[in-house]
Amino acid sequence: MKRLSRLRRHRATGPILLIFALFTIGTTFQVASAVDAEQTTTIAARSAAIDEGREIFLKGCSSCHGLNAEGGEIAPSLIGVGAASVDFQVATGRMPMGDMSVQAMRKTPVYNAEEVYALAMYVASLAPGPEIPTEEMLNYERDGSTAEGGELFRTNCAMCHNFAGQGGALTQGKYAPTVMGVEPVHIYEAMITGPQSMPVFSDKTITPEEKLSMIKWIKAAEAEPQLGGAALGRVGPVTEGLLVWTLGIGLLIGVAVWLAAKAR
């Protein structure tokens, strides 16, 4: 205690404490300023993206979805659909589309990645909705299981998309598209937004880890070599039987014609 008292009364104690206090205050201020600057930059960038997205929306989408995305006679409201829905529809080229009476098909996108992001940010600013999955959320190689993904796909998706993910026909002229060649982010977005006739698979129905397992199985099936020869669309025995039947009947007809011609 005596030693501590002597240190307190030392003439250098005051300046040292003052310097320490100033250093602490300065460091805290710098950290706080850096955080505020980063947040300000992020907010400014998001605001700029929203403004750009609104201009794109008014030019390319408002004629069907309404000036305020409230929907119209031929197109639904976009309020509350979230950024993920916009990214899926626009980045895969399904939107914008000229004829709203037919099913939207995957094609070359009209807008580039920056414009798609801006459009998604604008729609997301109208009301809360599913967000675009981040790269960390899509690490299916690390967090997914191929075996589990295959089981989940056959249970929840095969009745529409075919057991091999090649797609299939639905009622009323609709169809389930192939999932081969689709980007992981768009597969994930489709599951959480439910485009077209597809149901929404919430995290309570299929967890994020299970979604990654399904994506991992799809990518494994996509890369699987065709060791047995021509795959014939991998849609099952109907196609294979039809091919054999057609070739068999054709061969028999050819033999019959040849025998008839030879008999003359």
UniProtKB/TrEMBL annotation:
SUPFAM superfamilies for the chain: Cytochrome c (SSF46626)
Keyword field: Cell membrane, Electron transport, Heme, Iron, Membrane, Metal-binding, Repeat, Respiratory chain, Translocase, Transmembrane, Transmembrane helix, Transport
Major localisation: membrane
EC assignment: 7.1.1.8
Group of enzyme by EC: translocase
Domain (Cytochrome c): residue spans on this chain: 48-127, 144-222
Cellular localisation: Cell membrane
Keyword Ligase: no
Keyword Nucleus among record annotations: no
Record Gene3D superfamilies: Cytochrome c-like domain (1.10.760.10)
Quaternary assembly: The cytochrome bc1 complex is composed of a cytochrome b (QcrB), the Rieske iron-sulfur protein (QcrA) and a diheme cytochrome c (QcrC) subunit.
UniProt name for this protein: Cytochrome bc1 complex cytochrome c subunit
Species in which this protein is naturally found: Candidatus Planktophila versatilis
